[in-house]
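can u pls check wat happens w/ FE2/S2 (inorganic) cluster
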Amino acid sequence: MQRREFLRLCAASAATGTAPALANGDATARWYDRVRLTDAGGAPLRAAAIPAHRNLIFTYPYVTTPCFLLNLGRPAAASRRLRTADKRDYEWTGGVGPARSVVAYSAICAHQLSYPTRDISFISYRTEKSARNPHGNVIHCCSEHSQYDPAEGARVVAGPAPQPLAAILLEHDSGSDELFAVGTLGGEMFNQFFRKFEFRLALENPGAAREVVSGSASVVPLESYCRQQVKC
Ligand code: FES
């Protein structure tokens, strides 16, 4: 079965109230609105047009929860069995797109919830190694140096994070090459995030801090989304 069709059937199951039959009876996929990813001008984003190794950001499933969209520049085709901090197992089934190289993750660090704001970001994808970053090609949070491997479901490769970043489930239309976000997989941190940053989110997004994204989501470079990036 094609991955796109598989995900569509899962989403349909969720919509009708039956449990989505994700691989191995997974219980941690959550389905939200099916949202088309677009470029900053509102045109559908084509998977083939996503530059490799670039930090791209969109918000999903809420207007205040940023996610990374990454083209890893190589196939991320192997499934990974992962576990949440509360010991729920799940299976991440790899990247999407023609080369299986496109992945997406919540940008909220699974340790203390550091995330890219409009002012500053301590977390981003890095190809290069550094004194604090012995692993290249990881998502690195400079707050306390949690590092996640985006080619393996954002499993934790270093640092204090107790679980992988939550994956964003993507659907790829092989005919049009368009991408859609349809849900999340793994340990969501949204409830903790809304509690911790309630005041700031309400100030920045009056009346809309928990608004669900619908229709489309604009994908922009991290440097456009956020004024300053901390590297370490
Ligand atoms: S908040 Fe990211 S490592 Fe602590």
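The two ends are 43 Å apart (CA to CA).
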